[in-house]
Give the backbone structure.
Amino acid sequence: MPSFRAPRGTYDILPEEQPYWMFALKTAAETAALFGYGRIDTPMFEPTDLFERGVGDATDIVQKEMYTFEDHGGDSMTLRPEGTAGVCRAYIEHGLHNQPQPVRMYYASNFFRYERPQAGRFRQFAQFGVEAIGDGSPNVDVEVIELGWSFIRALGITGTQLRINSIGDAECRPAYLDALRAYYRGHIDEVCDDDRQRLERAPLRLLDCKKRQCQAIGNAAPKSTDYLCEDCEQHWASVTALLGGLKETYPDLDYYVDHRLVRGLDYYTRTVFEIEPENAAGQSTLLGGGRYDGLIEEIGGQSTPGIGYASGLDRIIAEIKAQETYEVSDAGPDAVIVHLGEAAGLRASALAAGLRAEGLSVLTAPAGRSMRAQMRYSNSLNARYALIIGDREIESGEGALRPLQSNDDQVGVSLSVEALSRAVRGD
Ligand SMILES: [Zn+2]
Ligand SMILES: [Zn+2]
């Protein structure tokens, strides 16, 4: 047993895993660029109040999942548990409302929540997220949903479905929450303990309770879309109509209205959505988000609408692997220099430096080992060539360049960076 291990709920990303991450991040950046979203980076920690007010006091995140600490100046800070609050804080702080609206931004970063570790859930996790702030029109809702869908498709992931709902706004939601509370009070003996405890403070959360005994009760609960005010109703009708238009480009973009979809954060208004694999079970959501028209005002800005989503990259990468949409290249370095003797060792270092400066990937085999061991090393790295130099080669000024990926014969090549560079490149 090693003395130290990565903290529970965290993971290392070893070099062989990195290509998947680079593929996902590159695809995220390219997709965001297609839609005109510019990258934003915000601090890993923010004042605790920002999340208490932005994410919501009543949420599980704020109540029990935040990494909160007092810094040496006595201020309460929190490792960010999600991305939207920080981006909205930056929008206000930098006066981005003076730019053309909406301001379109994306991020790809790490977030922190003290969650019970389980499959697909981590205490430090990576998300790619987008935010479109300053335009409340339904077109932007559908733009953000399209951005999510095309991100998934650009990764090669298929067989997904879009779930969508409208949870109303400050005007119409209170009446809906009353109806929901009244309904659940009538079923108080049938729901789980968690639900009984959160019924009064967070009634929406009962709808997405995953416990079996609560499913049927949730299915029969009042639907938020039946309680929308006129403005929300119109917005909702436009969103679904615009989504229909996306089918010209994405014939498989079937959405279904899931009245139990509410999302876990207090700040959502009107449209909420999730994309998940079909036949998904448990923690499989690839991407989820919604509109948050009250958030900017809640944290001290002018009343400004916004909408966004976040996509858990851990789950995205699990899905890329499950669907085998990305093949990691097994190409090794261009050459490994196998060197025998002191003089050859010195020459090997100098040549490797020269060839790397020419843009070739070149390593030297471990010094002081037998030729056979150094060749085994070169093969294990999957190098294209082994360049073999010993005392005799130093004397003659010509090394042996042996192809490792073909049956071609080895050739003698002058021990200069120029000649070797040409030979390795195949010029
Ligand atoms: Zn429950
Ligand atoms: Zn409304």
User: Anything to note?
Assistant: The chain has a mean pLDDT of 94.
